[in-house]
Structure formats: structure tokens, C-alpha cells
Amino acid sequence: MKKIILFGGTFDPIHIGHLILAEYAREFINAEKVIFIPSYQPPHKMNYTPTNWKHRYNMVKLAIKSCKHFDLSDFEIKRKSVSYTYITVDWFKKQYKNYDLYFLIGLDSLITLPTWEKWQEIVKKIKFLVGKRVVQQNLLNTLPRKVFKKIIFFDSPIIEISSSEIRERVKNSLSIKYFVPEQVEKYILQHRLYK
Questions:
Q1: CATH number at residue 35
Q2: CA–CA separation, 131 and 113 (whole Å)
Q3: Contact at 8 Å (CB) between 166 and 180?
Q4: What is the rounded distance in angstroms from the CA atom of residue 90 to the CA atom of residue 79?
Q5: Which of 1, 51, 132, 139 is the most exposed place for a label (fewest CB within 10 A)?
Q6: In angstroms, rounded to a whole number, what is the distance separating the alpha carbons of residues 184 and 177?
Q7: Is residue 178 part of a domain?
């Protein structure tokens, strides 16, 4: 069966760490494509107001435009509501009935899985792809057993870049060259984001 990877996130901004993780995941399971799904309002970041969705969407579009295996979805943005993963997974399962769907997350997000809305439903419906270099067993021991059956770990480089660090660098007039694709850097500067 053909495989598709769903990759949700705030992407504020998207950076090379996201792109490398997505490409390694795609190669690892030989997926047809990775669909990037920028969130409208991430449920775990209620105390943080993301940059306007148009900018985040446009930056993802610029970052992935040269990769034939990467796609962009505005599903969560069009809902204009809190972006709950269980709603997103249900919708994509209906769209791609003849595909195996996987949800790509980082190890940090995996640890928070039991705090997600309707997480038990999500675990029944989709497999998780988790990029790692070294998995700390003590962290994973906090996860319920049933989650483990649905996790596929794959080796990927750990790129120690975060979107918050990039926002901070821009705010302090520091360079973000090599942190983000060139087109994204131009977009951030042109629209005076994160100032």
C-alpha cells in the first residue's frame, strides 16, 4: 500500500531541521509524499500567539516548492479554530482511503502525547514516525504501553535549531542564514517578521 506522511506544526518559521526530518522520514518508509500542515492555533501553545497564518503558510510554500515529494495543506488553517490532531487525522484518512498514513513528530512531542486531546483515538487510527539519534529510555517510560505499538523510530540527524531561536535572532538583528531556506530568509526580512 502507498504511504503518506502528515507533518503538522506551527512552522513559525519553518527551518532546515523540519525539512531534514521530513526527508529522512520519507526515505525511511519510502513514502510517496510528506504533507506539511501548518496549524491555525496550536493547542499546546495557548500562551503564545503565532505569527499570522498567511505568513507561516507562505513560508512553508517557499521552503518546499523545489521538492516534488513535499506538499502543503491549508486544512487546519481553513478551520480557523484550535488545531486538534484527532480532527486532522480523521479528515486525511477520509481523503486518502487507499493509503497508509503516518504522523511525523519529534521526540519532544512524543513525550507530550498523553496530554493531546483524544490521544487514545489518535493512537488507534495512525502510526507515528519519530526521528531520533538516541532515545532516552527513562523519557519513554513515561508513555503508556499501547503507544509503543504505534511508534516507528528512525535515525535522523538531530538539528539543534528551534523556531523560537530563529525568532529571537531576528529580533536581535542576528543572521538566520543557513537556519532557514534562502527564500524563507528573504520573506522574513521583506515582511519584517519577528521584529
A1: 3.40.50.620
A2: 15
A3: yes
A4: 14
A5: 1
A6: 10
A7: no
Bridge partners of 36, per DSSP, are 7, 72
**In the predicted structure, residue 167 carries a pLDDT above the cut 90:** yes
Which residues span the domain enclosing 41? 2-159
Positive or negative, the CA dihedral 46, 51, 54, 59 is negative
156 contacts: CB under 8 Å, gap ≥ 6: 20, 21, 24, 25, 131, 132, 133
* 7-33: pLDDT as tens digits: 999 999 999 999 999 999 999 999 999
Contacts of 47 (CB under 8 A, 6+ apart): none
Is 163's pLDDT higher than 70? yes
Question: Can you tell me the distance from the alpha carbon of 83 to that of 87, in angstroms, rounded to the nearest whole number?
Answer: 8
- Alpha-carbon span 54 to 76, nearest angstrom: 12
Chain mean pLDDT for the chain? 92
Predicted structure pTM score:
0.94
Burial class (CB in 10 A: 0-12, 13-18, 19+), 63: buried
Distance of alpha carbon 183 from alpha carbon 13, whole angstroms: 12
Instruction: Report the run of H or E that residue 189 belongs to, with start and end.
Output: helix 182-190
Total residue count of the chain as it appears in this document: 195
Whether 33 is in a domain gets the answer yes
- Does a structural domain hold residue 180? no
